[in-house]
Specification:
2 domains; alpha/beta; single chain; binds glutamine; binds 4'-deoxy-4'-aminopyridoxal-5'-phosphate; 15 helices; 39% helix; Aspartate Aminotransferase, domain 1
C-alpha cells in the first residue's frame, strides 16, 4: 500500500531486550533506566503544580521559569550567557529534540557524520529526512575519536556531525583536545553540530564535561541537546531541551510547533522549582561513581574483560570472549535466558552490525539489583 520509509529497521534493541528480560524474569541491566525512585520533592512539586492548575498547554518554547533557571544553570556550569527567551526550547525528550534538529536543516542528499557505535535513533532520523549517514568508527577498544577518519569523511555534502559526550554506549568522555579538533575541522565550513549531552552530569573520576557551549565557535553552529530523564532519574517523563543560537532556535521552533507544539506543563513547573537546588545534579558524579565501582567490584572475578572503566554515562562495556564465541546478540540473548541477566549487544549501535563481542551493562540500578545480577552471573565461573 505504501513504501516503508525505514525498510531496514526493526524494533529497537532496547524494547527487544527489555521484553526478553521480562519474559525470562531476568534482571534487566539492558535498557538504560534507573530502578529506584525519583526525588519525593520532585513528586510533591508535580502534585502541587497540578493542584495549582498548571494542566493546560505551556507556551510553545517552554515555560519561562524553566528556561530562565536553565540559563542560570548553563552560566554557572559553563560560564556562557544563553538567552532563555530565544535560545532555549523545552522538548518532549532528547530523542524528539534530536529528530527536530535534524528536520530543521536537512535536505535530501545531505550527509551527516555519525561516530559509531552510536545511539540507535540517529541514523533512522537522518534517513527519514532523506539524508545520508556517513559512519565513522570510533577507536577500538577505548572508543576515542579517530580525528583523521572524521576529517577524511568530510565532503562538499557534509551538512552536520552528531556527537555524544559522555558517550552511550561506550562510556567515553570527550577531552578538551577532542573539542579543539572538532573546532578545527569545522571552522571555515558550514557544518552544523548536534551535540547530544544528555549525560552531562555523569562524568566520573573527577572528569569535567566538555560541553560545546563552552566553545564559542562551536556553540555558534550547534544544537545542544539535554534530557531531564537522566538528571532526575525519570526516563519515563520524556522531557528535555535544546540550546541553540537564536537563528537556529527560530527554525527549530518552526518545526517543533508543528510536530509537538509544546511539552507537558506540570513537569516543567516542577522541574523549574527543583533546579533551584543545584545539589540535585552536582551530586550525580559521586552517586554514579559509587554505582560503577560497586558493579566493577562485584564482577571482578567473573570471566568478563573490562577494557576500560566507564568514564561517564551509566553504562559499562564488557568483553565476554573468555565465556563464549557467540556473536554479541546471541550472547546477550543466551545470558538473559540462561543466566537471568539482560544486557545490550554493542553491534546494535553499528549500522553494519559490526560485532566486537562486547555487551553493555546499565549500572543505574539499586545496589541490591547489581548484587543479585552479579550473584546470578557466578554461574559463569
Ligand atoms: N541520547 C542518548 C545518548 C541517550 O542515551 C538517550 C537515552 N534515552 C537519549 C538521547 C534520549 O533521551 P530521552 O529519553 O530524553 O529522549
Ligand atoms: N537511552 C537508553 C539506553 O541507551 C534507552 C533509550 C530507549 O529505550 N530508547 O539504554
Amino acid at each position: 500500500m505504501f513504501q516503508s520509509k525505514l525498510p531496514h529497521v526493526g524494533t529497537t534493541i532496547f524494547s527487544v531486550m527489555s521484553q526478553l528480560a521480562s519474559e525470562h524474569q531476568a534482571i534487566n541491566l539492558s535498557q538504560g533506566f534507573p530502578d529506584y525512585m525519583i526525588s519525593p520533592q520532585l513528586m510533591a512539586y508535580v502534585n502541587e503544580a497540578m493542584h495549582d492548575g498548571y494542566n493546560q498547554y505551556a507556551p510553545m518554547p517552554g515555560i519561562p521559569a524553566l528556561r530562565n533557571i536553565l540559563a542560570d544553570k548553563i552560566y554557572k556550569l559553563y560560564q556562557v550567557n544563553v538567552n532563555p527567551e530565544t535560545e532555549i526550547t523545552i522538548t518532549p525528550g532528547a530523542t524528539y529534540a534530536i529528530y527536530t534538529a535534524f528536520t530543521t536543516f536537512l535536505q535530501a542528499g545531505d550527509e551527516v557524520i555519525v561516530l559509531e557505535p552510536a545511539y540507535d535513533s540517529y541514523i533512522p532520523n537522518i534517513t527519514l529526512n532523506g539524508a545520508k549517514a556517513v559512519c565513522v568508527p570510533l577507536k577500538y577498544p577505548d572508543y576515542a575519536v579517530d580525528w583523521q577518519k572524521v576529517k577524511d569523511a568530510i565532503t562538499v555534502h557534509t551538512k552536520a556531525i552528531i556527537i555524544n559526550t559522555p558517550h552511550n554506549p561506550t562510556g567515553y568522555v570527550w577531552t578538551a583536545d577532542d573539542m579543539h579538533m572538532l573546532d578545527e575541522i569545522t571552522s571555515n565550513t558550514n557544518i552544523l553540530i548536534i551535540s547530544d549531552e544528555v549525560y552531562e552530569h555523569i562524568t566520573l573520576d573527577g572528569r569535567m564535561h566538555e560541553s560545546v557551549l563552552k566553545y564559542e565557535n562551536l556553540r555558534a553552529r550547534s544544537f545542544v541537546i539535554y534530557s531531564f530523564g537522566k538528571v532526575f532519574h525519570a526516563t519515563g517523563w520524556k522531557i528535555g531541551y535544546c540550546v541553540a543560537p537564536e537563528a537556529l532556535s527560530k527554525e527549530f521552533r518552526k518545526v517543533h510547533q508543528f510536530i509537538g507544539f509544546t511539552t507537558n506543563t506540570p513537569m516543567q513547573v516542577a522541574l523549574a522549582k527543583l533546579l533551584a537546588d543545584e545539589h540535585e545534579y552536582l551530586q550525580l558524579p559521586h552517586f554514579f561513581e559509587q554505582k560503577r565501582n560497586l558493579f566493577l567490584n562485584l564482577i571482578k572475578d567473573l570471566p568478563f574483560t573490562i577494557y576500560q572503566q566507564a568514564q561517564g554515562s551509566y553504562f559499562q562495556l564488557a568483553g565476554y570472549e573468555k565465556i563464549s564465541k557467540l556473536g554479541d546478540k546471541e550472547f546477550a540473548i543466551w545470558l538473559t535466558q540462561h543466566i537471568g541477566v539482560a544486557t545490550i549487544p554493542i553491534s546494535a549501535f553499528n549500522h553494519d552490525g559490526k560485532d566486537d563481542q562486547l555487551i553493555r551493562f546499565c549500572f543505574a540500578k539499586k545496589d541490591s539489583t547489581l548484587i543479585e545480577a552479579a550473584e546470578r552471573m557466578k554461574k559463569l565461573l
